[in-house]
Write a structure and sequence with these properties.
By secondary structure, the protein is of the alpha/beta class. It has 16 helices and 25 strands. The strands form seven sheets. Strands 15-18-19-14-13-21-22 form a seven-stranded mixed β-sheet, sandwiched between helices. A six-stranded mixed β-sheet has the order 10-9-8-11-12-24, with helices on both faces. Strands 1-5-4 form a three-stranded mixed β-sheet, with helices on one face. Helix 10 crosses helix 11.
Length: about 475
């Protein structure tokens, strides 16, 4: 049996273990797996002061130095993938294969952030193109914005921490991490790894706690940028607490995937089954709504049901497991209730629909009412709803009825449909011949409408974590004097 993993607070360069703690019970193993030292009000004050005081030291590090640290961290993650995957399985019920996948992405994210750190620069502006600019020179640089607050979610606690912390450090900022209460040990272990790779102690602190800790950090004047990933309600609270500072929000989704009549139905069903239930569907871009052209609807439904039934459900520590547990019993119970509501409205469940503790059997809900919660709200669980459509314009409008707009999938070989969907779907990204649940960590990721503000991935996050500073040299020109 694994020992209980201690998740200390890191404040002003010191790991603190004494004081009040919270305990995390693993949703599958049903025992205490980690214990987090909770941040106290004085800790928050100390951390904020330290983040501000240390900002200059981190900003003065050469980009090459920051990049080398991140590259060492990338190599360290790759070497410790199994260790982290096991911890993700214990704290969250995430299958080992999903945990391994997450840690491979962490390694990639650190490497990408290192490359982007080396590319940070500025430009010489063409001031002499206007009469008043003649005889002058203007140069810009990207400068660190100041202390960053990174608030991370439970569903991908390592990779989303990597995105925020690596980009902030690459940009030359200090960072305070407020990790999710459900995954304190994973979060603290990743911060330790970065420090072991050479990240200076001024660059990062980690404070465990609930919404009260996050709210006080958000409101603090020492914080220059808040980067939050989580639900819409919590995101609104973060924005309100932060006030007039830079706030980046990666919020919920209700992802749609469209399967057209010219699609490879067997492949579409295989991909939707694989990506609709990974991490028990607990992803903001997890396949939730699949709209299938009516002439292929029955064929797709049968194929999807067969693929889902073939998934292995159970112990997340078993390497063969495809679907482990959800984050807790309450989350699984909510998905079961929403399934029952859809059935009362006329839907048919072709597989799944039941739960045991925090394990929700992978569920396929066919033809639910359009006003059912499994269609209208973010399920964030092991459920995929399948709905028929007739015309392409009709299905695009149906997808856009959602208040969310994060990412969508489209299976077709018709370039006209591809261009139409890219233009008309109200989403931040479209995956063609793939489901909504596919992401490359080095391209921009983010949504529109209630799905948030800003774009993640290191290059775009570095833009948000830096400010443009201009140097105007009067009477000194490289452009010509007349």
């Amino acid at each position: 049996m694994d020992a209980v993993h201690e998740a200390e607070c890191l404040i002003a360069g010191k790991w603190l273990s004494e004081g009040p703690h919270s305990e995390r019970v693993g949703p599958y193993v049903r025992r205490i797996v980690s214990r987090a030292r909770l941040a106290q009000p004085d800790d928050i004050t100390t951390a904020l002061h330290y983040a501000r005081q240390g900002a200059g030291a981190v900003a003065r590090l050469a980009p090459a130095t920051r990049a080398a640290i991140l590259e060492r961290a990338s190599a360290a993650v790759a070497a410790r993938t199994e260790e982290f995957a096991r911890l993700l399985a214990l704290e969250l019920g995430k299958p080992l294969k999903d945990g391994r996948g997450e840690m491979l992405r962490v390694a990639d994210t650190f490497a990408v952030a290192a490359a982007e750190a080396r590319a940070i620069g500025g430009e010489v502006l063409p001031v002499a193109g206007w009469a008043r600019g003649v005889g002058n020179t203007a140069i810009t640089q990207r400068a660190p914005a100041g202390p960053v607050l990174a608030i991370t979610p439970f569903n991908a606690p390592a990779n989303l921490l990597a995105h925020k912390l690596a980009a902030s450090f690459a940009a030359g900022n200090t960072t305070i991490v407020k990790p999710p209460p459900q995954a304190p040990a994973v979060s603290a272990a990743l911060v330790r790894l970065l420090l072991d790779a050479g990240m200076p102690e001024e660059a990062v602190q980690i404070l465990h706690g609930g919404g009260d800790v996050g709210a006080r950090l958000c409101a603090a004047p020492e914080i220059a940028v808040v980067s939050f990933t989580g639900g819409v309600t919590a995101g609104a609270a973060v924005a309100h607490a932060a006030g007039p500072k830079r706030v980046l929000l990666e919020l919920g989704g209700n992802a749609a995937t469209i399967v057209c009549e010219d699609a490879d139905v067997a492949e579409a069903a295989r991909v939707c089954a694989r990506t609709g239930y990974s991490n028990s569907g607990q992803s903001c871009i997890s396949v939730q709504r699949v709209y299938v052209q009516r002439t292929r609807f029955e064929e797709f439904t049968q194929a999807l049901t067969g693929e889902v039934r073939a998934l292995t459900v159970g112990d997340p520590l078993d390497p063969a497991t495809d679907v482990g547990s959800m984050v807790d019993d309450e989350a699984a119970g909510r998905v079961a209730r929403w399934t029952e509501e859809a059935v009362r409205g006329g839907a048919v469940v072709t597989t799944g629909g039941s739960r045991t503790g925090a394990v929700m059997a992978p569920t396929v809900v066919v033809a639910p009412p359009t006003d059912a919660k499994v269609v209208c709200e973010e399920v964030f669980g092991a459920l995929v709803a399948v709905l028929p459509y007739d015309g392409f314009d009709e299905v695009v409008q149906e997808c856009n009825r959602s208040p969310y707009g994060l990412q969508a999938g489209l299976f077709t070989h018709d370039v006209r449909r591809i261009v139409t969907a890219w233009r008309e779907l109200e989403v931040g990204g479209l995956v063609v011949n793939g489901s909504s649940n596919f992401r490359l960590d080095h391209i921009p990721f983010g949504g529109v409408k209630d799905s948030g503000v800003g774009r993640e991935s290191p290059r775009w996050m570095i833009e948000d974590f830096t400010v443009t500073k201009t140097l105007l040299l009067r009477g000194l020109t490289i452009w010509g004097e007349q």
